[in-house]
Design goal:
Strand order of the largest sheet: 1-2-3-4-5-6-8-7
Helix content: 25-40%
Radius of gyration: 20 Å
Shape: globular
Number of helices: 9
């Protein structure tokens, strides 16, 4: 009887999720610079271009997040290969495959074909990271982009994101995952706090602010503090996307002119981390200064202009 009980306890321990050994920041020595980011590939292929030196010095040699979606192929293979090659550096990844993605904006539409397909995809994403250290931003805009959705669609999306948080908690114990919380002028802080709580932010490290947007770090910090303070009975840390917020926000969100690179990736800075989540130079869609460039495609002129604030 005692032997049987001992074996049963061993089985439970063997199947339980691994405990957090340390923070992913503490387990690594700086952020990973992706040699195959869109800007880095362009720099390699355009040595004779007059814009190349500025883009190389100011963008392609900086830590930038890698986005994963349907274009990534088999997600477990793709994510595992990426985190495997980061060595002692900390990778930043973005999960961007929610069904009905960008439902209201329209420029970045797509996503998994069904909630069931998404659950399979996001579970494989978390499994692919496993116990390796990482930072993951989960589904940019997905909790802010509700204004064109009915109650059933909102509930369906919220359930999918909550499932994602459960998968990262169970399968990627040394990942700091952040649910996206829109930006400083999109959703009131108290409303966003309610959405985050319903979507399982308790299960993950915290939330992200200003992904693919332009609001200044100070404005984003004020909003992040308000959201955290409005969570019911607990607080959460947050990260800010500073990739294009050097000149702040001018009221436009889709490839506006006059914007500038912000503070490169670092810990602290008003938030838990400042990150380049959006790839500088990647288009927001066929709009603004890049009417002929699809969302997510790199445009060297957009990148060059961000260096100088043009």
């Amino acid at each position: 009887m005692i032997r049987a009980l001992a074996l049963a306890l061993l089985a439970v321990v063997a199947t339980a999720p691994a405990a957090h050994a340390a923070s992913p920041v503490g387990m690594t020595d700086g952020f990973y610079v992706d040699p195959d980011s869109n800007p880095a590939v362009w720099v390699r292929d355009h040595a004779g271009d007059g814009r190349q030196a500025a883009i190389k010095a100011n963008i392609s040699t900086k830590p930038i997040a890698r986005w994963f979606g349907a274009w990534s192929g088999d997600i477990k293979t793709s994510v595992s290969a990426y985190v495997n090659r980061t060595g002692t550096k900390l990778p930043v990844l973005v999960a961007y495959n929610i069904p009905g993605r960008d439902a209201c904006g329209g420029h970045s539409g797509g996503g998994a074909g069904s909630p069931e397909a998404y659950r399979t995809w996001i579970s494989s994403f978390a499994s692919a990271i496993g116990t390796r250290p990482a930072v993951v931003v989960i589904e940019p805009d997905s909790l802010a982009d509700f204004n064109c959705m009915d109650g059933a669609k909102i509930a369906e999306r919220t359930a999918m994101i909550k499932y994602a948080t459960e998968q990262f908690k169970a399968k990627a114990p040394n990942t700091w995952a952040y649910l996206d919380a829109g930006n400083a002028q999109w959703v009131p802080a108290a409303t966003m706090a309610t959405r985050l709580d319903s979507a399982g932010v308790r299960n993950v490290r915290g939330f992200s602010i200003n992904v693919s947007n332009y609001h200044a770090t100070a404005a984003s910090t004020e909003y992040g503090n308000s959201v955290s303070g409005a969570l019911p009975g607990y607080t959460k840390p947050y990260v800010i996307d500073t990739s294009r917020n050097g000149n702040g926000h001018n009221g436009e969100w889709c490839n506006p002119g006059g914007r500038k690179l912000g503070t490169p990736a670092r810990t602290g800075g008003g938030a838990e981390m400042l990150l380049w989540v959006k790839v500088p130079g990647d288009s927001d869609g066929r709009c603004g200064k890049a009417p002929g460039v699809d969302a997510g495609k790199f445009d060297p002129q957009l990148a060059f202009d961000l260096v100088y604030g043009y």
